[in-house]
């Protein structure tokens, strides 16, 4: 059975893209729940992540890709930059063979883990972007469910990476609130 994250990634890319397209011109420098990032910074992060996808799924190493996606990758048109990166990413994910491994900044990992991490990144940052730009904050239940399973199973490792803020306690039974809280968001 194919990795469920792989099946959910195309929809997550589309949903994030719809949110990018809804950002109004004056909002690009607004703050996000990611305390260090503006909306533009957040989109820049996702564009960079999705520019890497074709390379990593094709078996290229970090060294081979180098620093070509460091810094500002959205230029003067963040929407166009997202659309182009998303298209390349979708092509790479379509029918991708996730049986191998790749070397990431945190070490070597199965490509199935990469797919799970990309789905988490897309889903949580979709909410960040929605919150920052005043859009509907609801998330896809299937994506949330997959991300919550991954986040719970990897909570200690994820916390050690320092890529998300510390968990925020919650008594909510809503899976989206649980996921977002686990990954440092105050909902």
From TrEMBL:
Pfam families: MDMPI_N. It comes from the Bacteria. InterPro entries: CHP03086, DinB/YfiT-like, Maleyloyr_isom, MDMPI_metal-binding. Residues 12-130 form the Mycothiol-dependent maleylpyruvate isomerase metal-binding domain. This is TIGR03086 family metal-binding protein. It comes from Amycolatopsis minnesotensis. The lineage of its organism: Bacteria, Bacillati, Actinomycetota, Actinomycetes, Pseudonocardiales.
């Amino acid at each position: 059975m194919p990795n469920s994250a792989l099946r959910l990634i195309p929809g997550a890319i589309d949903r994030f893209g719809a949110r990018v397209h809804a950002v109004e011109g004056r909002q690009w420098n607004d703050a996000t729940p990611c305390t260090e990032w503006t909306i533009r910074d957040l989109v820049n992060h996702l564009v960079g992540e999705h520019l890497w996808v074709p390379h990593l799924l094709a078996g290229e190493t970090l060294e081979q890709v180098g620093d070509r996606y460091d810094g500002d990758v959205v230029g003067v048109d963040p929407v166009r930059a997202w659309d182009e990166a998303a298209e390349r990413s979708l092509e790479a994910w379509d029918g991708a063979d996730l049986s191998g491994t790749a070397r990431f900044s945190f070490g070597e990992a199965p490509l199935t883990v990469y797919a799970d991490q990309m789905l988490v990144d897309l889903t949580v940052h979709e909410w960040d972007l929605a919150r920052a730009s005043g859009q509907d904050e609801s998330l896809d239940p299937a994506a949330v469910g997959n991300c919550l399973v991954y986040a719970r199973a990897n909570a200690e490792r994820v916390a050690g990476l320092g890529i998300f803020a510390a968990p925020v306690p919650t008594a909510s039974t809503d899976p989206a609130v649980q996921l977002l809280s686990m990954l440092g968001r105050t909902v």
